[in-house]
Amino acid sequence: MVKKAVMGIFILTLTLTLMASCIVAVPRDMSYDDTINEGWVAGPDAVIEAGGLSSFVILPDGSLWGWGWNYHSQLGDGTTIDRYRPIRIMDDVKYVSVGGNHTVVIKTDGSLWSWGRNIHGQLGDGTIENRPYPTRIMDDVTAVSAGGLHTMAITADGSLWGWGLNLRGEVGDGTAKDQLYPVHIMDDVMAVYAGMGHTMAIKNDGSLWGWGSNIEGQVGDGTTENRLYPVRILNDVAYVSAGVDHTMAIKNDGSLWGWGGGGYRVGAEQNFGQIGDGERITRHNPLRVMDDVIQISAGGGHTMAIREGGSLWGWGLNSIGQVVDGTAVEDREDYSRPTPRKILNDVVAVSAGFFHNLAITSDGSLWSWGWNEHGQLGDGTTQARNRPVRIMQPPQ
Predict the structure, then answer these.
(1) In which element (H, E) is residue 5 found?
(2) Domain span including residue 365
(3) 102-107 and 112-116 strand pairing
């Protein structure tokens, strides 16, 4: 138990240290010259996913493309080489989700495939061996979400399954034991989202349930106690997104709610402003943030939201331009943006990673911004961007 506790503290410390390390100054003028980048028009129906430090897109033809950090083979191309522009991974893909260092996809036939890091069994193949190529895990899957070191999936009958790291109860089976194979958690589930160390699920009746790590109040039950079993949090929920230490949910009336926090110190009451209520205060209960929201994505320490009409809004940690207001971070007092600010118009999809974002506009163009050390922006460089840039057209 002591060993597991130490590992949990290590994971949390590593996450927060990585976040703090990205609070650095970036050049003020980082506008991008599109004359050297024609950009990639993937179509408004493309599916995007910003993972920890890597990115993916599914084109309307079902082809999956990836780029960015690949140290653990999380891109699935059989190598450990970072990719600075999109490369083709596989075909007939319907959905993709990226965790800290692993990737899971659902193919058009309902089969679930995974690859990348597998130290806690997060791939679900019964081993702890990393996989450089896609490996088939289970069938009849309708939804999947990759967390920090665990994975959750919904099958066609509405049953929810989980596996991987379970130190803080993030799998939700009532234990703190890692699971190398999928285990059944609950039924009548229509949506699930795995965060860094916690999980949120929406049942068919619109009720929202949460479990796992709760030290920052990210489960939303009013406490900071880890939960090994699902606990009911809200009703009338249409969509949910779980970040590293915060959670955002959209109710059926379009209102956006947020809770949790996460900052420099585990359990601190100060955070990066990722809730969006204008404060840098950790919230243990759901708090109403804004209205008329149709899509939400919770990142490492920031949040992105699309409102009715297609306007994109962002708030929270802005250390490397992830809130994209075009400014530089020159001191610690200016690293966050706790109040929502408008970023783009005509946006149809958005995905927030640890420190970068992806978006699709109504004309089908792919855009990215934020940290880019591993090429996760897909613009062919490793230059951080505090304004949206076009993702490069892959080689023909």
Answers:
(1) helix 2-21
(2) 2-390
(3) antiparallel
